[in-house]
Structure formats: C-alpha cells, structure tokens
C-alpha cells in the first residue's frame, strides 16, 4: 500500500440512480487481489472515502461508486484530467484458492463492483462462475453485460421486479448449487444470505473508516478469531469466523 | 542539539513531533510507509489493564475540518502490549516511546503503570484521564481536580519514569486541573484530548455514532487546543505537550509559542500516513521564514 496521485481518465454515470464509474490512470501495482480497496481524498472533506476496486491494471484502476453523500457527490463532479490523492492497495481482498470449481458470486447494489475483478480472476483460473446481482429497481442495474462478457452466468434480480427476476438475491441463491460463495453488499442482505447458503464462503464488509490502513481502530469488529480491522484484516472475512449479532 | 531538538522531562528529543495516542496504533504499521525513527517519539495506543474490544460500529463520523471518533480504547491489554506490541515496535523504532495508559479505577492505572515501568523502551508514562468514549473511569477522572490529583499520586508512587497527565478540554478551568496534577507530582501535562460532540444522520434520524457521542479532533479544534495549551503553560512550571488539530509546521510553531515543549499530531495521521514526516521536514524552512533560529527559542513567548 502507498499514497499515490492518479489522473481521472473517465468519470461517467453507469446507471440512472447515481452510480458512477471512474477510470484512473496511475500506478495500480499496489493492488494484488480482487476485493481490495482504495481511500480517496475528495475536495475539502477531512476523511478520505474508502471505495472498492472493480478492476485494476499496472497503469490504471477502475472504481464504481454510488452518490450517497457530500463526498461522493463531489467525486461525481470531477472531470477527466483532474488528479486525486489516493491510498491504494488497502485491505486483504478475496482468496480465490478456496473457490472450488463452480463458485457463485452474490452482489447487492454497490456491493457488485469488487465482484467484477473477482469474477475476472476466477474465470482466468478456469472456474465456472455464476453471478447473482441484486438491485432495488431497473434504474439501479449496472454491469450485467460486463459480467456476461467475462464468461460468467449472470442472473439479475430486482426487488420490484422491473428487471430480471422479481425478488431478493436470496430467492435465487436458495435454489442453486455451487462449490463456494463470495458476496458483497448491504448487511441486511448478508443476514438473509447466511441462513440459506449451503457452503462456506467469503463476505466483503463495508464500514465507516478513519484511516483505512489499520491505525485508528475505527472499523474493528469482533470475530471468532479475535478482533479484526475491516480495513486491514478485512474487508473480506470467511464465513466461519463471523459473529452475527442481533 | 539541532534546531528542532527539545527536552521533555529530562529526555532529549531530536524534534518535538510525536504521533498522538490512538492515531498511530503501536507504530510499526507506519514503518511500512517511511523510517519512523525520524519521529521525536511515539505515543502508543491507549492501554488498559484488561483487553478491550471498544465500542460498537460505527465509531467514526466526518465533521467540518475534522472527525468524531468513539473507538472506546480498543487494545489488547497491558500484558499483551508488553509481550507482543512493544517487541514488534522495537524492531523498527530505536527511540524512547510514550506509553499511554487508561483505566476505570485507580487500581487499573496502577497495574498498567507498574508493568510498563519495567520496560526500557518506555520513556514516559502518559496518563489518559480524559477519554470521552468510555463509560465510568476515563474522562470522569480528568474533569475533577481532586480525582486527577489522586490518580497522579498513585501512579507516581509505582514508577520512576516521568509521568505526563493527559487532560480533557471538557472542563470549565483546565488550568486548575493542570495545577492540581502538578501539585500531586506530575512531571508534565499533555493536552488536549478530544472535545465531546455528536452528529445525527438525517435519513435514519439517529446519531451517526452508535455510542451517540464521540470525541472531536482535527484542524477544527486547533484554536481551542492552542488557547488551552497557553492557559496551562501560564499556570504550571512543568513541561506541556500540545496537541489538537496540528496539521502543519506552522501549527507546531504556534503551539511552541503558546508554551508547548513538544507536540502531538493526531487526526492528520489518519488522513495522511506521511503527516508527521511532512511536518518534520517542513519545520526548518518554516523556522527560517519567521526568523527563528531554534524552535525552543520561541517557547511560551505569547
């Protein structure tokens, strides 16, 4: 991990409901695994904004983010040519060695992006990948075709049925068979998912963070193997170590 | 002695910049970014007698020019700090460190201080009687001059190392508490800990922090911290360590002018892992700019 300057090459809306893709040119070599994240200094905001990486190369990274507050709103207004101060290569990322031959990737909303890089990696390793992507409504849907182009089987579900299957990802996943699962999305989705999955898997968590690199303990959570910092020992945790509270 | 050097309770520092407790872990993680031996010292993550997981998430919130935190003193406990964290830091840091101690009773403080007193690499004990994020103990010792004096006396009785008491700004007269600690035998005062604050999420209609309240830090608090450092400097004769929102070499000079013998950089470490390094490297030029030969020449001139 290190602090580096990146130049924006592209920053455009991917879906109607404030989902943006930003392609940044700069040194992407600190990123070693899919599921890692970057922490971005945005305008005059004091804290950086942690954003998962969708795809990375030695000379560029791609992030997909949703406008949810002041920081991400400012991000959405940045133009190609603008520079960003970024802490890169953060977090542990997904471990593809545990996937088995036909893993399933389950994404909810803005949890979908890190699964793209993961899908690419798993396909490269010769795995048969299925993806179930859940969104609230048609206007939220993005990257369906991109996953398909990688060679994955893709099922889209929307809560209101405006696109793909009607319902939640759990309605789809409960009838599928797979060797292992990887998921990223909102915590209510995780809680529903944990009761219906049939194998072990990995969950990628999000959290409000102070630093993003392990210094402040702002994002620690208790696990069966001791406390873990979501920014450092996470954001990806294995299913067996998670304590589901409440 | 260089232009930046200073003496804190009899121990010489090559420069006055010390990362503040809770913003630098146990130090070794920052060694991945740069050689941390350029730092004056390091104030270690707040240590309690027993292991603590800290508060439920979220523990962090953004504020104008700053942040709120309600981490709640997450740490492995004094015994494991000594057994595991100090040796790891020793591999990458050769100077004396400041062990930061917190507790929920007099006995807690005494236990941790007795243990840490035996560690060679610990130069000072910084006694945190000002954490706003724990219930019972913590800040309640730092908002009462008699309680502050009691902790100071009990800790002094079990250590030969210099004892620096870290004060809370959440009081009416911080000078009075500093004086009370000095009278009880404190070797130094550090301030300020965070200012108690809160934020509300308009969408959920609930506090952003699960703990409801948290401690405000970052550049937003700098003027408050500077004023309090100056208040305390005028009331005591023991050295003062100034902290609260320091973000630049110029801020360090202001703190020195207000009376600080050394400074701690806190929240800015979280937004830029190179913050302390950048400040140290910028100091000589900043001194030149304002016609200052040695930084300590201007200590307390205000």
Describe this structure in words.
The complex is a heterodimer of chains A (246) and B (302). By secondary structure, chain A is an alpha/beta fold. Chain A has two domains: 2-90, Beta Barrel (Elongation Factor Tu (Ef-tu), domain 3), CATH 2.40.30; 96-241, Rossmann fold. Chain A contains five helices and 15 strands. In chain A, a hairpin with a 3-residue loop joins strand 1 (2-15) and strand 2 (19-25). The longest helix of chain A is centred in the middle third of the chain and has 12 residues, at 113-124. Chain B has helices at residues 78-90, 106-117, 139-142, 145-156, 174-183, 222-235, 249-258, 268-271, 275-289; strands at 6-8, 11-13, 17-19, 60-63, 66-69, 97-101, 122-128, 163-166, 188-191, 195-197, 200-201, 206-207, 214-217, 240-243, 262-265. In chain B, the strands form four sheets. A seven-stranded parallel beta sheet of chain B has the order 3-15-14-9-8-7-6, covered by helices on one side. Chain B has a four-stranded antiparallel beta sheet with strand order 4-5-13-10, with no helix packed on it. In chain B, strands 1-2 form a two-stranded antiparallel ribbon. The radius of gyration of chain B is 18 Å and the shape is globular. Chain B starts with 5 loop residues before the first strand and ends in a 13-residue tail after the last helix. The mean pLDDT of chain B is 96.
Number of strands of chain A: 15
Helix content of chain A: 10-25%
Q: What structural category arises from helix and sheet content of chain B? A: alpha/beta
Averaged pLDDT of chain B? 96
- Count structural domains of chain A: 2
Q: Count helical runs of chain B.
A: 9
Describe the sheet with the most strands of chain A.
7 strands, mixed
Low-pLDDT runs of chain A: none
Content of β-strand of chain B: 15-25%
Q: Which strand-content bin applies to the residues of chain A? A: 35-45%
């Amino acid at each position: 991990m290190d602090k580096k300057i990146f130049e924006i090459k592209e920053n455009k809306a991917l879906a109607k409901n404030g989902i943006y893709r930003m392609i940044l040119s700069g040194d992407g070599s600190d990123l070693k695994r899919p599921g890692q994240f970057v922490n971005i200094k945005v305008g005059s905001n004091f804290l950086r904004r942690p954003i998962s990486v969708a795809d990375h190369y030695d000379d560029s990274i791609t992030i997909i983010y949703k406008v949810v507050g002041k920081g991400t709103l400012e991000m959405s207004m940045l133009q190609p040519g603008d520079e960003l101060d970024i802490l890169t290569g953060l977090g542990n990322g997904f471990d593809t060695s545990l996937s088995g031959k036909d893993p399933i990737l389950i994404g909810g909303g803005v949890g979908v992006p890190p699964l793209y890089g993961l899908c690419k990696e798993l396909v490269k390793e010769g795995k048969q990948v299925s993806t179930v992507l859940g969104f609230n409504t048609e206007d939220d849907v993005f990257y369906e075709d991109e996953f398909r182009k990688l060679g994955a089987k893709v099922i889209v579900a929307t809560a209101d049925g405006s696109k793909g299957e009607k319902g939640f990802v759990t309605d789809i996943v409960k009838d599928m068979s797979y060797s292992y699962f990887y998921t990223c999305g909102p915590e209510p989705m995780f809680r529903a998912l944990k009761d219906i999955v049939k194998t072990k898997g990995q969950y990628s968590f999000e959290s409000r963070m102070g630093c993003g690199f392990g210094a402040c303990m702002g994002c620690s959570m208790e696990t069966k193997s001791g406390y873990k910092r979501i920014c450092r020992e996470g954001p990806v945790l294995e299913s067996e170590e998670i304590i589901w509270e409440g | 002695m260089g232009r930046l050097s200073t003496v804190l309770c009899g121990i010489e520092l090559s420069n006055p910049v010390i990362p503040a407790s809770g913003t630098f872990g146990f130090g070794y993680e920052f060694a991945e970014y740069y050689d941390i031996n350029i730092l004056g010292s390091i104030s270690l993550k707040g240590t309690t007698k027993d292991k603590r997981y800290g508060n439920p998430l979220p523990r962090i919130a953004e504020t104008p020019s700053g942040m709120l935190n309600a981490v709640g003193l997450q740490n492995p406990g004094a015994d494991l700090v000594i057994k595991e964290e100090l040796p790891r830091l020793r591999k990458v840091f050769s100077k004396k460190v400041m062990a930061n101690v917190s507790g929920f009773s007099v006995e807690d403080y005494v236990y941790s201080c007795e243990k840490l007193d035996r560690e060679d690499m610990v130069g000072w004990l910084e006694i945190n009687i000002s954490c706003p994020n724990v219930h019972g103990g913590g800040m309640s010792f730092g908002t009462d001059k008699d309680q502050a004096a009691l902790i100071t006396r009990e800790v002094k009785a079990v250590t030969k190392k210099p004892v620096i008491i870290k004060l809370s700004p959440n009081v009416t007269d911080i000078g009075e508490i500093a004086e009370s600690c000095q009278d009880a035998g404190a070797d130094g005062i550090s301030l300020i800990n965070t200012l108690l604050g809160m934020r509300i999420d308009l969408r959920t209609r609930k506090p952003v922090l699960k703990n409801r309240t948290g401690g405000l830090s970052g550049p937003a608090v700098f003027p408050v911290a500077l004023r309090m450092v100056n208040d305390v400097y005028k009331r005591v004769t023991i050295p003062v360590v100034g902290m609260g929102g320091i973000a630049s070499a110029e801020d360090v000079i202001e703190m020195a002018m207000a009376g600080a013998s050394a400074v701690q950089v806190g929240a800015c470490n979280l937004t830029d892992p190179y913050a302390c390094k950048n400040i140290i490297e910028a100091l000589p030029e900043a001194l030149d700019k304002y016609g200052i030969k040695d930084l300590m020449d201007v200590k307390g001139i205000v």
